[in-house]
Amino acid sequence: MSSVIKNYTFSIEELQIQPGEIEKLLGFAPGKSPDPFPELIKEGLNEAPSLCAIKGGFIIFEQVEVDREKKTIRIKNQYFNPGKIIVSRLKNVTSAALFACTAGQEISIFTKKQTESGNELLAYVLDVIGSQIADKTVEKIQEKIAALVRESGMGITDAFSPGYCSWSVAEQQKLFSLLPAGFCGIQLSPSSLMHPIKSVSGITGIGTNCKQIGYQCEWCKDKDCIYGRIRRQKKR
């Protein structure tokens, strides 16, 4: 399989975001959120199609080297230090896809305007919707990568992003150095923050012995992760 660069645009309808998903991210059981959240979620999802420019893409790199002892991954001239957890999940990779996805800038601009207008609850809901759009776009990109490499008899790992599982956000500088400038309309600041804000970047491993097993929150020590908080609440 030769190196591949792919770019996609998606409609929000393709992401199939359900109100129950947003309720869960807000900390409520699906269908159990108190007023005024059901109407705010409905309003936010109705506004989202006109506010989003959803893009995602990836580049597949061959000859990836994983050093489990040093806990590093080499892609071309860059050495990544994602930590023990991610390195162990990528131990069987022979290639890797670096990806970037975004919901676009307008939803964040609209969210800020709602805050400035005193509509803090709607702004909060829109912020969560924007994050979910970016994450669901990653799922779509994962599907694209899996379909592409399946032709060569290979599978993929789960996607991992800087900022998770103790992987330093600063390493987005290395990641973006391997992507074309302005890939998917995303710019990286000197402090390693992506613009538009509702964007996600990361790595997906590829290999004959690779598979997706889902995310296990016990892997990660990030107490601020919204998904981890939800899963921890369920165990109480």
Structural features:
236 residues; NADH Oxidase; three-stranded antiparallel sheet; alpha+beta
Account of the protein in words:
By secondary structure, the protein is an alpha+beta fold. It has a single domain (4-235), classed as NADH Oxidase, CATH 3.40.109. The protein is 38% helix and 22% strand. It has eight helices and ten strands. The strands form three sheets. It has a five-stranded antiparallel beta sheet with strand order 1-2-6-10-7. Strands 3-4-5 form a three-stranded antiparallel beta sheet, with no helix packed on it. Strand 4 (72-75) and strand 5 form a beta hairpin. The N and C termini lie far apart (47 Å). The mean pLDDT is 91. Residues 140-208 form the AdoMet activation domain. One of its GO terms (molecular function) is methionine synthase activity. This is Vitamin B12 dependent methionine synthase, activation domain.
